[in-house]
Amino acid sequence: MFDLTKARADTPAGQNGIYLNNAGCSLMPRPVIEAVQDYFALEAGIGGFRAVTREAGAIAAVYASVAALINAKSDEIALMGSHTAAWQSVFYGLSFTEGDRILTSQSEYGANYVAFLQMRKRTGCVIDVIPCGGDGASDPVALDKMIDDRVKLIAINWIPTNGGLMNPAAEIGRVARAHGIPYLLDACQAVGQTPVDVEELGCDFLSATGRKWLRGPKGTGFLYVRQAGLASGRPEPAMIDDFGALWKKPDAYELVAGARRYETHENAPALRLGLGAAADYALALGLDRIRERVRRLAEGLRAELARMPGIAVHDLGAEHAGLVTFTHDAVAPGAIAQALEGEAIYVKVVPREGALLDSTARQLTQILRVSPHYFNAEEELETFLRALRKVTRA
Ligand SMILES: Cc1ncc(COP(=O)(O)O)c(C=O)c1O
Known about the structure:
Layout: H1 4-9, E1 18-19, H2 30-46, H3 48-54, H4 56-70, E2 77-80, H5 83-91, E3 101-104, H6 110-123, E4 126-129, H7 140-146, E5 151-157, H8 169-179, E6 183-186, H9 198-201, E7 205-209, E8 221-225, H10 227-232, E9 245-249, E10 252-255, H11 269-285, H12 287-307, E11 311-313, E12 324-328, H13 333-342, E13 345-346, E14 348-350, H14 356-361, E15 367-370, H15 378-393
Parallel strand pairs: 1-13, 3-4, 3-5, 5-6, 6-7
Antiparallel strand pairs: 2-8, 7-8, 9-10, 11-12, 12-15, 14-15
Helix pairs in contact: 2-3, 2-11, 4-11, 7-8
Residues 82-84, 109, 111, 157, 160-161, 186, 188-189, 209, 221 line the site of pyridoxal-5'-phosphate (PLP).
């Protein structure tokens, strides 16, 4: 049985409205808030450097917590300031020359795609989109047929920003493995809402944020780098400093052994401890249970929305995550979101640029996104639906 009372009691901001934008930035549970606040109090009391020394053990334990979340080893984890910082430190460390191919998903996220475009401008590499199957997800069979010796990277997102689609990340991993192609997986919308196992996924790199489904502090993210890549020393991080690389001889450097080579010396220990607390909190609840509840809430919403006059639901895929997207044929997404906000119900308007290839192909402009987490009560969703009916009838 899921203990909703405890989940809600642990979520102070949940008392201030109906929060349905967990895919954007979720609400921190109490242990996360306390980990951050306690550490800042310590810093305020004894200074930043002494605080790091005193809390070295707890800070080091964050790597194990994050690793446990994705079935990785502690030294395969780098703690970062965002998903994008993690993703970029891998992507820009890869070498591309003219004609090299990057294979990506139709649902690719804007921040990743503009980096592909910049790399294309710099090097003449080619960006090819993996065709979608009938369900709208990237098709691993079609991917397999695209592979040739110019493919230098497969980089997709597992769950996009603009809907409940779940790309077949593990099947894509099997294709990448079979052909020995580096596989960079954007798991930004997956970590914290569904079990993640890097062995099953077969990815070489996985990037994620803290603030979304994991309920960590804003300004946190992490990167997973497979041990084999670390051992081979290829690729190198896009940028290094003398924390990730040791300067032992005047004209040479040596990368540190683990994924921490992707980090820089300066960081925010308070936020890292918050991220660790978020990982521990999710692990204690159980990712299977979290997934089950998130899916149940989201499926219920999808079904109700599909029944409402004038509403079109836009989620692709055979299997759905906790992001529910829709539009109304008469009332604009912005007007709906604003009216809901007036009743302290918080949803997100996703711009078409979030996933421009997909929104162009489906002729979608702005869409509304509702992303319930496990701490949302069924009554909150009913209140949301009632408010939506009122707004769209007006
Ligand atoms: C699929 C996806 N990838 C990447 C990101 C970017 O994450 P961050 O803002 O932590 O860099 C987002 C954020 O919305 C996202 O939805």
